[in-house]
Structure to design on (551 residues):
């Protein structure tokens, strides 16, 4: 008879699936690797694009890591954690999402080999933590200083970020991006502060990328409300109004009894008079353009048109804020408060038709702290990818200005730091040394992938890079994908912000450490089909594993 202590204790409800120990780790690692492999081939200037088709048949074509992962339907929790890595990288730096995800997947792939050698996960986690800290330190050590006035290097950063996405108009777009970022930058103490929201992106199809433009002011995606109003106003004095130019309805239920036509006429005259008073206040302020966040009554539109004032209604709150920053106007909550000092200035306010849509261009502001970038493209897919490229370039340029440090690209900094990490691993010793060396190997996945996309032999490339980086002159040597050889990346103007690497290292190592600590996956569901997982996956994994394994 079995002793009581040997009897299995059942504490989970029927239908719950549980995966423990090594199996749980293998599943998580397998999913993370699959996610990383899904975006790895997009890396670099010669990276390939992905086409994602959703259930409705809508198509997204991109080689932007964050966009691909956002559009993919990933159910597995480990896969979702990898998507979070890309999202964090995108939010914090604005570029390098593919790098971060590939780092995370490769760290787990290397950890799998260490687990097979019977090295405990906690030792791997400790080694990874030490390596991540040192790697960030080494990247900072080898970084070059950049100043806000170094427009040439900032442009090189923007071009590097866009290469492979909007390569056709990369140089022109990079010029616009650097101008936009420098325009909205504000000095606080001895640091330059940039708010990403102050650069407004508008995209319209129907013209080539070369026709994209920077407006030193704001583009509002609205039309001028009345046909009698001027379509172009020079030396615009702009009023921003946050209240409706309409007669307010009463807060409580009210009934007005009218017994004869004269009373009705008097009532209508009174309404008209109230609207006329509203318009008179705007006229008295000296404004010749009004942006209203709420509605404008038809009669008010008539009076404004007679006064020669152009008006735009139902402007978004974000556009009102941007207009205030660009034109130096103050938003008036009540019309009675609107005065001459509250008005903003722009050289011109013009209504234009762009790709069949009415838009209002507020241009020629004195020193705008909010600007608009109008991105053009021949088709919807082209303009979408160009917008993503511009977003990445803005993020990369802002990060470089914020940290004032840049690195050479093409995998040069990764090999340099990997060499330093291997030297550091020898000083640590023990089993942690193996984990630190695995971390160093992980960093080399970037030059290895670049070599693969350039048709070079990845193994020979890595060996040659290690050898070149062991000399003092080798710091900037990386993979030149266009010529299929090793070159000085600084001379080729391939530059990226320091924050791109340090953030990617932080996010990737943290997700790898978290997944390695998991040794038990409990998927609770009594609704799923018998003997399988929720969603019909009958192996001991998690929802979505059927898709991930085939990726």
């Amino acid at each position: 008879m079995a002793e009581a202590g040997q009897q299995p204790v059942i504490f989970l409800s029927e239908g719950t699936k549980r995966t423990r120990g090594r199996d749980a780790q293998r599943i998580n690692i397998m999913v993370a690797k699959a996610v990383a492999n899904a975006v790895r081939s997009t890396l670099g200037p010669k990276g390939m694009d992905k086409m994602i088709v959703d259930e409705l048949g809508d198509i997204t074509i991109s080689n932007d890591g964050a966009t691909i992962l956002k559009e993919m339907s990933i159910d597995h929790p480990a896969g979702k954690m990898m998507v979070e890595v890309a999202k964090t990288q995108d939010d914090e730096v604005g570029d390098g999402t593919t790098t971060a995800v590939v780092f995370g997947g490769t760290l787990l792939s290397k950890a799998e080999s260490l687990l097979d050698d019977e090295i405990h996960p906690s030792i791997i986690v400790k080694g990874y933590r030490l390596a991540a800290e040192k790697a960030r330190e080494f990247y900072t050590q080898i970084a070059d200083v950049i100043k806000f006035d170094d427009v040439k290097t900032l442009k090189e950063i923007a071009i590097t970020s866009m290469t492979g996405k909007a390569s056709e108009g990369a140089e022109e777009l990079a010029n616009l991006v650097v101008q936009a970022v420098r325009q909205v930058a504000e000095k606080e103490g001895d640091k330059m502060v940039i708010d990403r929201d102050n650069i407004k992106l508008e995209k319209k199809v129907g013209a080539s990328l070369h026709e994209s433009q920077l407006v030193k002011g704001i583009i509002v995606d609205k039309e001028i409300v009345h046909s009698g109003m001027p379509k172009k106003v020079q030396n615009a004095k702009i009023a921003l109004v946050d209240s409706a130019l309409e007669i307010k309805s009463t807060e409580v239920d009210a009934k007005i009894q009218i017994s004869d036509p004269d009373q009705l006429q008097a009532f209508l005259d009174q309404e008209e008079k109230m609207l006329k008073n509203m318009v008179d206040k705007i006229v008295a302020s000296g404004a010749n353009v009004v942006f209203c966040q709420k509605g404008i009554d038809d009669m008010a539109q008539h009076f404004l048109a007679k006064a020669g004032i152009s008006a735009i209604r139902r402007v978004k709150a974000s556009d009102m804020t941007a207009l205030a920053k660009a034109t130096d106007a103050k938003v008036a909550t009540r019309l009675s408060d609107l005065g001459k000092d509250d008005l903003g200035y722009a050289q011109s306010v013009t209504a234009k038709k762009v790709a069949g849509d009415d838009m209002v261009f507020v241009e020629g502001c004195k020193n705008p702290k909010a600007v608009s970038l109008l991105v053009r493209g021949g088709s919807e897919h082209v303009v979408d990818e160009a917008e993503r490229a511009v977003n990445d370039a803005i993020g990369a340029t802002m990060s470089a200005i914020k940290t004032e440090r840049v690195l050479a690209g093409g995998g040069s900094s990764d090999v340099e730091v990997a060499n330093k990490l291997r030297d550091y691993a020898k000083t640590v010793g023990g089993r942690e040394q193996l984990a630190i060396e695995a971390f160093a190997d992980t960093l080399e996945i970037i030059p290895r992938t670049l070599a693969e996309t350039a048709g070079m032999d990845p193994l020979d490339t890595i060996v040659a890079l290690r050898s070149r980086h062991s000399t003092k002159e080798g710091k900037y040597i990386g993979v030149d994908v266009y010529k299929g050889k090793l070159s000085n990346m600084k001379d080729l103007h391939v530059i990226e912000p320091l924050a791109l690497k340090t953030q990617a290292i932080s996010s990737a190592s943290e997700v790898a450490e978290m997944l390695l600590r998991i040794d038990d996956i409990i998927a609770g569901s009594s609704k799923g089909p018998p003997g399988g997982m929720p969603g019909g996956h009958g192996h001991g994994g998690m929802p979505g594993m059927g898709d991930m394994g085939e990726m």
